[in-house]
Fold each of these.
Amino acid sequence: MRDPLSVLTEAFTSFLFGKVETTRLPVRTSTGQAQAVYLPTAAPGLGDSGVIIGREVYSGKGYIYDPFQLYGQQLPAPHWLVLGESGNGKSALEKTYVLRQLRFRDRQVVVLDAQGEDGVGEWNLIAQELGITPIRLDPMVANDSGIRLNPLDPSITTTGQLALLRTIIEVAMGHGLDERSGFALKVAHAYVTEHTTDRQPILTDIVERLRHPEAESAEAMNVDIDDVRAWGLDVALVLDRLVDGDLRGMFDGPTTVGIDLDAPLIVFDLSHIDRNSIAMPILMAIVGVWLEHTWIRPDRKKRIFLVEEAWHIINSPFVAQLFQRLLKFGRRLGLSFVAVVHHLSDVVDGAAAKEAAAILKMASTRTIYAQKADEARNTGRVLGLPRWAVEIIPTLTPGIAVWDVNGNVQVVKHLITEKERPLVYTDRAMTESSVTDPELEWETEQRAILIEQQMNGTSQSTVA
C-alpha cells in the first residue's frame, strides 16, 4: 500500500506541473523479438513506373528505374554512368536493361559493342533474338562485303563533316590542328563538296585534293600553291590511313545502303578493332557524329545510346567534345547516353580530364559495382558518394551495386529472368563448366545470401 504522504505529494505536483511521466524499467530482449516492435524503415524508392532492375538489398523492395520517367522530377539529366571491375555484372545489367526498355513501343537503342567473343560482338545473341543484323565494322572484309559509313555522307551538314574530319585527324595526331593545316583541310573539303555532284563525296577525294590543291585556293589567301600543299601533307597522310591503311574500307566509300535506322535495336559491332589502338576513338567519333545527323530526330521517340569501353570517348579531348554536344540532345530530343567504364581513374586522370568532368557532371545516374578499396575511395570522392556507400563497394558481390540517382543512394541486387540468362552472359568460355554444375551454383547462391544478410545486419549459422 502506498504511503498517503506520497500520494498527496504526487497529486499536488500533477496539479501544478501536469502529469508526471511513468518511469519504467528497461527491458532486455533479442533482435529477433524486438523487430516486431521496432518496424524497419527504408528510404523511398524511385516510384513504380519504368523498368524493373531488381530489388533493394536493405528493404527487399523492388527497384524500378527509368530516366525518361524520372526526368524533370528526380533527374536533371537522363544520362547514366556504369562503373566496376570486370566480372561483376555490368554487362548483364546493360543487356537486361535494354531488353526491358525495348518492351516499350517508343524506345530505340543504339549500342557501340567494343567487346567480342567467338568472333562476334557480345551483343550478337541479343541481336539474333530480336531478328537484327549487327553493323559489323571490320577492316579485313570491308573492301569486299563489309559495312561502310561515309564521313562525307550528304545527310551530315557540311559544318558537321568538317568538324568530323578535324576530329579524326586530331585524334590520330594526338594534338590539335594548327591554323595552316586547318586551312588546307578546309579548302580541300570546300572544293570537294562543291564540285562532286554526281555521287557521294568520299575521303579519297579529300586526300587527292590535299595532295594537289587548286590554284584558286592559294590565291584566295595570297599564298603560294606549294605552301598550301605542304600545309596539308600531314593531314593527307592521316586520312590516307582510312583510305589505304589499317582502317581501309570502312569509311572511304558511300554509306552502305540498307542500314535500318528505324530498327528498335541498332548494334555497331566494333569487336574486330583493336581496343587499345588509336582506331577505336576514331571509330567512335565517326559513328557518333554519323548518328547525330542521321539517327536522332524530333519524332518523340525515347532513344538510348549505350557505349561499351566508353573511356575511348571520355579519354580523348577531341572525341569528348563531340559527345558533349551529343549529350545536350538528351533534354531536347529524348536521348539517354549510357557510358560503361571499368575504372574512373581511366577517365579523371586521362588527357581529357576537363571534358571528362563535364560529361560526368551530365550523368545524374551512377551505378558502381565492386572495386578495390583505393579505387572505391577515389570514386566516392569524385562522385560525392556517402561514406557508408564507399565502404561497402569493395565488399559487393557480383550482381549487387550501389546506385546513386541524383543523390538517392541505394544498394541494389540485379535480377535476371530465366529467359534473359542465356542472352546476357558473355563469359561462356570461362563459366561453361560452372553453369552446368548444380552444386557449385547452389554454393555460389548461398554465399551471396550470406553476404547480403551480413550487409543487412543479420547473422545465420546455417549457411555453410
Amino acid sequence: MMGSIEGLERFDSPGKGRGLRVTRPFKVGELLFSSPAYSFVLSLSERGCYCEFCFTRKEGLARCGKCKKAFYCGVKCQKGDWAMHKLECSAMTAFGENWCPSETSRLVARILAKKKMQKERCASERILLIEEIQSHVEDVDNEKREMTESDIAGLHRFFSKHLELPDHKDLLTLFSQVACNGFTIEDDELSHMGTAVYPDVALINHSCLPSVIVTYKGTSAEVRAVKNMNPGDEVLISYIDLLYPTDDRNNRLREFYYFTCQCQECKTKSSDKAKLKVRKQSDPIEQEVISNMVRYARKTIREFRLKLDAALDSVAPPSELLEMCEQSLDEMGAVFDDTNVYMLHMMYQAMGVCLYMQDPDGAIRYGEKIIKPYSKLYPPYSLNVSSMYLKLGRLYMGLERYSVGVGALKKAMAIMEVAHGRDHFYLTELRKEMTRK
C-alpha cells in the first residue's frame, strides 16, 4: 500500500483528483517503488514462451497436464498460479477451439476471483482494492459499450462455472475501471506480453512531460525517475505515446481516459513544429495543402490499423500492408519531411511488416530512417527509442555486422539502465548478446 512506501505520499492534485508526490529527493534512474500486480494475465499469443505465473521467458517450460495449454517454470509456479488458472483450465478443454474470451474478460475473471479470496481470508482487514481506482462508465461511447457488452457476454459464457458474477451494472463499472487503469506488460522491445492492474501505480497522474517511467520485472511494475525530483514534486507518467503532436495526444487522452492534458508542453505546443515538419521547397507549401495532408495521414493510420487487424485474422496478406505503407509514404512525402511524425509512423509500421516477412534488410532500411528523429522527438530515456536501438542492434548482429550491432545495443543499454535499473535481467541478457559472435 502506498502509505507504507517511504518517500511518497498521496495528495489531492489540483484539477486531477488523487495523485502521488515525493517527500524526499530522487535522482534520475532511482527506483521510487515496485508494485506487485493486483491481478495479471499472460497474453494467449505468448503461451509457451513465458511462464504463466512469473512471466519468465525460457526454453523447456513445463506444460499443464490437464489442459496442455498453459506453461510454467516448474511445480512451484504451477501451484502458485492454480487459483487463477483453474478458472480457465477445464473450460479450455471443454470448449476447445470455441474457447475465445478477450484478454480483458480473462483479467476481469481473475480480479473477481482475487476479490473473493481476499474477502474470505481477511474480511475485517482493509486492503487496497480495485474499487479505489477510477471508473468512467458514464462517459463510454456506444462503440466501447458494445465491446464491453461483448466482453461481459464472454465472461458469462466462459467463466460462470467457477465464478459468482456480480450484477450487470457492477460488471460495467469493473470493465470500465480495467479499461482506464489496466497496464500492458511489455518486453524489452515493447511487444505485448499481458495485461495487469496495479492500484498503486494507477494513482499516478498523466503528463506529456513525465517525471517517472513504468517498466516491468516479471509481473511487478517498477517506477523509476527520469528527471531529478525534489520534495513536493508530483509523480507523473505518460499514459500515451508521446511522439505525436498536441492535438493528436489530447484526442487520444479524451478517447481513452476522458480528460485533456494541461501540462506545459500541451499549453505551448513547443514541439509541434518539429513533429509536423514539412519538406523544404522553393515555393512554400500552402497551409491548406498541409492541413489536407494531415487529415490524409490520420485517415491512413486508422485504415492501416483495420487492415492490420484483418491480417492478424489471416484475411489480408502482409504484402498488402507493406504496399499500403509504401504508397502512403510516397503520398505524404510530397509534403512532409522524412522526420515528420506521420512519416515516422508509417515507416515504423513498414519495419514491423518487414520483420514479420523475415526481411531484415528491409527492416533495417526503415529502422535507420527512424532512429535519429526518434532520439530527438521523444523525451530522454524513452523506451520507444531503446526498443528501436534493440531491434536494429539485433538485426545487425543477425547479419554478422557485429561492430555496428554492438554500437546500437550500447545505446539501448544506456537508456535501459535508467528505465529498468542496472540489475534488471534484460540488461544481464543484453550484456551477453553483445559478446556473442
